[in-house]
Design a protein that fits this description.
Strand order of the largest sheet of chain B: 3-2-1-4-5
Strand content of chain B: 25-35%
CATH class of chain B: Mainly Beta
Largest interface: A-B, 76 and 55 residues
Order of helices and strands of chain B: EEEEEHHH
Mean pLDDT of chain B: 81
Bound molecules: iron/sulfur cluster
Order of helices and strands of chain A: HEHEHHEHEHEHEHEHHEHEHEEHHHHH
Radius of gyration of chain B: 15 Å
Number of domains of chain B: 1
Number of helices of chain B: 3
Helix content of chain B: 25-40%
Strand order of the largest sheet of chain A: 4-3-5-6-11-10
Oligomer: heterodimer
């Protein structure tokens, strides 16, 4: 495992960590929403540099993890149809549906292609007018402008054989759902830097105000994360609840106006089911009426899809931050990255897989006797 | 999946009415849509996510971030070719994690 001491900026990191230790007088629970941040925190051992009691809770920020099983099953069904070219980002290939994954669909003769950008899928559609080309558009606000441009371009170029299987999820409604949950323990948030580079952070001040929580816009590198945590802890200690930008080199308050404009032209807000969490009202985007004809769910009428989740899995509680991965009785036993029972073990950005991969193996019993959670019990 | 990677714009073209740049990510060059960052010019650095530039960034920060992402091992996954993506998937057991990093370390 890599530790921060191995980084070029190890000295600065240690200085920020010291400052957090000096500032924190009480236990605090801070959630990083983004899976990329979860990954970076665990990979760099940042959780283990924090004072006992200052805990990072890992939020539902892995788009692969929260994509409902039902949608994966739809993707598999469409990809298996003759005459279809199914395009996806590489990280969806091994995400299991009820039966199999996209990799296996290709093995059985399906035309599944990995693209770098959704525009590559539009190009494939232009070159194959006799085939239906579908792009699997999952992700948060960061990915949405790319998907919006793909349908916008397809419409402008009159490509009737292109469609989008779309399941966009939005961060602010997820934050609100977490804060409204009766068992909520989260006292402050690190907002995901790249989501904010698109959306800005004008949506956050009302949340910070309404729920009395600090929200710090934070990047992905070790120093960014430590700085974000430092600022959140400082606010909590001082009883403040403001929105701060710790990622100014990339994020502005307004965000990317041009991207937001096209998003508004192509998408409309909709209720979304988050795998493991359930329906969160107004928490996603779908294509609006003007673009409905490019919606793969409209174009391919699929019926008879039945999905089943494992009864052993507590990924919903993990995604809400109610329990830590290792507190799930199946963690590391019935459920490992090779045999994932739930969404949060499937993706390497999922909290359960990240805990597993970075050696946070403590069982629920060990945790309870350690008494203060993983950040206190340095291990791995 | 939400990571955006900094790169340097080397050339700007117009394709299908889109502003498209050739962007260099520390050696790997990709075609990137620049429509969302109209202010970008050749020689500028920008943060790119799934083939779209989403914000401008200065050179020093761009290079530092690129180095950091390389150290974290996330570049290959974001910038690899289709063949590499399939090869990665092939060595990943069914139902294992998407990018093959499970069980690593
Ligand atoms: S360890 Fe596995 S079974 Fe338990 S919550 Fe995580 S994904 Fe679900």
């Amino acid at each position: 495992m890599k530790y921060l001491t191995e980084f070029r900026d190890g000295e600065i990191a240690r200085r920020i960590a010291r400052e957090i230790h000096q500032t924190a007088t009480r236990p605090w629970k801070i959630m990083e929403v983004c899976g990329g941040q979860t990954h970076s925190i665990l990979r760099n051992g940042i959780d283990q540099m924090l004072p006992p009691g200052v805990e990072m809770i890992h939020g539902p920020g892995c788009p692969v993890c929260v994509t409902p099983l039902e949608l994966i099953d739809r993707a598999l069904a469409i990809a298996a149809q003759p005459g279809v070219i199914f395009c996806s980002f590489g990280d969806m290939l091994r995400v299991p549906g009820t039966e199999g994954d996209l990799f296996q669909v290709k093995g059985r003769g399906g035309d599944v292609r990995v693209v770098y950008s959704p525009l590559d899928a539009v190009e494939i559609a232009a070159k194959n007018p006799e085939r239906q080309v579908v792009f699997f558009g999952v992700g948060f606000e960061t990915t949405a402008p790319a998907n919006a441009m793909s349908v916008h371009l397809a419409k402008r170029r009159g490509l009737r054989n292109f469609s989008l299987l779309v399941s966009h999820v939005l961060v602010p409604p997820a934050i609100e759902a977490i804060l409204q949950a009766p068992e909520n323990k989260v006292q402050g948030f690190l907002a995901a830097g790249h989501v904010c580079s698109v959306m800005g952070y004008w949506e956050y001040p009302p949340l910070a105000e309404k729920y009395g929580i600090p929200i710090v816009v934070t990047g992905f590198e070790p120093l960014d994360l430590l700085d974000g945590i430092r600022r959140a802890v400082k606010q909590l200690e001082e009883g403040r609840h403001e929105v701060e930008n710790a990622y100014e080199r990339v994020v502005s308050f307004e965000g990317n106006r041009a991207a937001q404009k096209l998003l508004a032209e192509v998408f409309e807000v909709t209720d979304r089911t988050w795998r493991g969490i359930g329906v969160i009202p107004k928490s996603g985007w779908r294509l609006n009426d003007a673009y409905r004809e490019f919606d793969a769910e409209e174009r391919f009428h699929l019926s008879g899809i039945r999905t089943e989740e494992s009864p052993l899995c507590h990924s919903g509680a993990v995604l809400r931050g109610a329990i830590r991965p290792a507190e799930c009785p199946a963690f590391g036993k019935e459920c490992t990255p090779r045999h994932p029972l739930g969404a949060t073990m499937v993706s390497s950005e999922g909290a359960c897989a990240a805990y597993y991969n970075y050696g946070r193996f403590l069982s629920a019993e060990q945790l309870a006797s350690a008494g203060r959670g993983l950040s206190g019990a340095a291990h791995g | 999946m939400c990571l955006a990677i900094p790169g340097r714009v080397e050339e700007i073209l117009t394709e299908n009415d889109l502003r498209v740049g050739r962007v260099n990510f520390g050696g790997v060059v990709k075609r990137v849509c620049l429509d969302y960052v109209p202010e970008i010019e050749v020689g500028d650095y920008t943060i790119v996510h799934v083939g779209f530039a989403i914000s401008k960034i200065d050179r020093e920060n761009a290079e530092k971030t690129l180095e950091e992402f390389r150290a974290m091992g996330v570049l290959d996954e974001e910038l690899g070719s289709e063949e590499e993506a399939w090869a990665r998937a092939a060595t990943t057991k069914p139902s294992s994690c998407p990018d093959g990093s499970c069980g690593g370390e």
